[in-house]
Amino acid sequence: AILGSILVNALPSHDRVGLLFGYWIAVTSIAPFVVLLAWVGATTAGHTKRTTMNAVVMIGYAVGNAAGPQYWKAQYQPRNHVPWAILSACWAASALLFLVTRAYLTWENAARDRETHDARWDEVYITETRPDGTKEEVRVDKEFLDLTDIQDRDFRYVL
């Protein structure tokens, strides 16, 4: 998509085939967004945190979709150099953020691999009161504790 937006912005107006090809490449920008949606779910643990992260991503997506059309103004026509330059910069910044995030998560996974097992969440019990009034200690599986990826040191980030 970055290459396509650069081609659309840089090629001369008479190069119709090159401009069309650049546009076709540029519209592939939706693929990284789909990867982002999957990655947010895979790199976030805990139901509450995962739901919040998905909401934050969707809010950012909505704000971007609301703001994006505002820079396609008549004054930039017919080639729309400014909007295409903004798209190139945004896509390049997104790619850089993806790479930085991946490097950090790789580093975090390696640090967690060096740690000893954290057993504090292995044996968690809650007191459950039965209908007849008796109380019973019931073991809760770690998966149901709503631990975030920061709390659960056994969690590994999907890269």
Properties at a glance:
mainly alpha, 159 residues, 5 helices, two-stranded antiparallel ribbon, single chain
Q: Can you put this structure into words, describing what you see?
A:
With 159 residues, the chain is mainly α. It has helices at 2-10, 16-26, 30-42, 47-67, 81-114; strands at 124-129, 135-140. Strands 1-2 form a two-stranded antiparallel sheet. Helix 1 (2-10) packs antiparallel against helix 2 (16-26). It is elongated, with a radius of gyration of 24 Å. The relative contact order is 0.13. The model has no long low-confidence stretch (mean pLDDT 91).
Sheet with most strands: 2 strands, antiparallel
Number of helices: 5
**Span of the ends, CA to CA:** 22 Å
> Helix fraction?
55-70%
Shape type: elongated
Number of strand elements: 2
What fraction of residues sit in β-strands? 5-15%
Secondary structure elements and pairings:
Elements: H1 2-10, H2 16-26, H3 30-42, H4 47-67, H5 81-114, E1 124-129, E2 135-140
Antiparallel strand pairs: 1-2
Task: Explain briefly what this protein structure is.
With about 160 residues, the chain is mainly alpha-helical. It is built from 5 helices and 2 strands; from the N terminus they run H-H-H-H-H-E-E.
